[in-house]
Amino acid sequence: MKRGSLLSGKIWPLHVLFAAGVVVIWQLLVLHAGNEVLFPNLDSVGAALWDLTSSGKLHSAMLESLRLLFTGFTFAFVGAFFLGVIMGSSKAIGMALLPLMSFIYCVPLIALLPLLLMWFGFGFTGRMVVVAYSSFFPVLLNVYAGVRETPSDLVEVAQSIGLTGRLAQFRHVVLPSSVPFVMAGFRLGIGRAVVGMAIAEVFLRLGGIGALIVENGARFRTAYVIAAIVPLPLLGIALTKAAARFEQRVQYWRYTAVSE
Amino acid sequence: MVGLSKTFRWKKKGVDQELLAIDSLDLSISKGDFVTVIGPSGCGKTTLLRIVAGLIGYDSGEVRINGEVVTGPGQDRAVVFQSFGLFPWKTVLANTMLPLTVRSDVSSEEAEDSARLNLKKVGLSGFEDAHPHQLSGGMQQRVGLARALTADPDILLMDEPFGSIDAQTRLVMQEELLRIWSETRKTVMFVTHDLDEAVMLADRVAVLSPGPGKVQDELIVDLPRPRWEYDLRAHPRFAEIRATVWDLIRQDTVSLPPSAEDT
Ligand SMILES: Nc1ncnc2c1ncn2[C@@H]1O[C@H](COP(=O)(O)OP(=O)(O)OP(=O)(O)O)[C@@H](O)[C@H]1O
Ligand SMILES: [Mg+2]
Question: Which CATH number characterizes residue A127's domain?
């Protein structure tokens, strides 16, 4: 009975419990180290967070970061979508480009930074390219898979009712059937875009949240560093969650059965 | 169709593979006829239907409809697919309407009316707004049938359309199909591996030999119509025809050459 009620009940008490555990362990470390630079007391982190928020620094840094994130990701998503559709629709192009794409996908972003820097500079363009690069491939590979995996029996159905043109088949079968893949690409891509954004802001010209982190780090204001880091994963989670929500809505034909 | 052959060719680990699915098959169906094609699993029934539907090509022979060689799908034919072939993101109604939705000469009101009517005919009124995954297999198959009827073709190509419907519903559906057919006089090519069904529905039963598909024999079913007005199974002629078809099928199975692995 007890077990059942715990599992079937709301999940948030568990989250709270877990968070409390992390806080306790952290505070133990603080006590043990006794060093504000290594392990700042949560009090000071809270104070730093308050300072950053009330001074508007966090706000403006966040805005700057978000602008970078969304421009970069939009370019990546649109580009990857079209390339994925082309690669998925033509076997020859797909086969020709896939090895190259897999190759670039496997190059660590950090290793590419010097090159991207030289080609695109420190400015907004350069940073945007870093964000776009880091989110491009999850979208591309998912869209590609979605288009490749169009159910062939549904293509036959479409043909049999007179949708013989490639374009008509694309609209009626290929596109709708790849929606789940496209959404998965969106979700994965946006998570990676957040990582790319942080890297771009730290390693290219300082800006946004990245600048907050680096500047405070250089002055050993660890509490401020932590206060500036916390919004990043929160942002990532929030965006991924929002994407997953949207994904469920678009795939209602799969989910309604479960929720009823 | 005359002397029809189809060989599937594909590559496996770089080696060319081929499989003769249909071997010089001859079959002719007159306008308004109800022909059932019966044969064991894998004998090429679906392949034959896909060829007639114009979904795949063939290697030799000829398929003609009203004298014209089939080169692709057409509005004169509609298919009820063995695997239903419903679009999971569309509602039942939208699925049923689709053959008309894609046509520019039919208004969407007309399309919807026709779809609703046909859904009613197959007993699915009230499920218009459901999505296919919310229906049972048998119900999905009936949506497939309603969709083919909505296309209003001259020729209905049906691939085991009652294969996943329970026995009672199947009887109702068979009767309903016979009614629809007697009203509309469409030409029907109906694939099945159910002996009773093959005999019950047809004007003529074509028995296919186990792969490669070939018409082994054809039988005229001279049972009086309309057949829903009497107990068909109790009719002595039904038993006779059924026994003859069964003999043909059994001969095939027994005379099957031993496969390579056995020798
Ligand atoms: N696309 C394909 N590529 C290669 N072989 C195929 C293909 N489609 C069918 N075949 C082969 O052709 C033969 C006939 O298949 P078909 O689907 O027409 O059988 P069927 O009579 O409809 O069987 P069932 O009653 O199980 O539906 C089978 O041996 C099958 O393996
Ligand atoms: Mg079949």
Answer: 1.10.3720.10
The ipTM, to two decimals, is 0.83
Tokens found for residue B103: 């046509």
Q: Closest partner residue to A176 among B89, B98, B134, by Cβ?
A: B89
Give residue A29 CA to ligand 2 midpoint distance, Å: 68
**Are residues A72 and A2 both part of a single domain?**
no
**Cβ neighbours of A252 in B, within 8 Å:** 131
> How many angstroms separate the CA atoms of B52 and B156, rounded?
11
The string of pLDDT tens digits covering residues A174-192 is 999 998 889 889 989 998 9
List of residues 6+ apart from B116 with CB closer than 8 A: B93, B125, B128
Residues A238 and A188 in one domain: yes
Same-domain check for residues A76 and A106: yes
**Alpha-carbon gap, residue B3 to B63, rounded angstroms:** 9
What would the pLDDT profile of B208-246 be if each residue is shown by its tens digit?
Answer: 888 677 777 888 888 887 887 778 888 888 888 888 888
* A78 and A179, same domain (yes or no): yes
Give the total number of structural domains in chain A. 2
Range of the domain at A206: 39-256
- Cα A39 to chain centroid distance, Å, stands at 29
Please say whether the beta carbons of A222 and A36 come within 8 A: yes
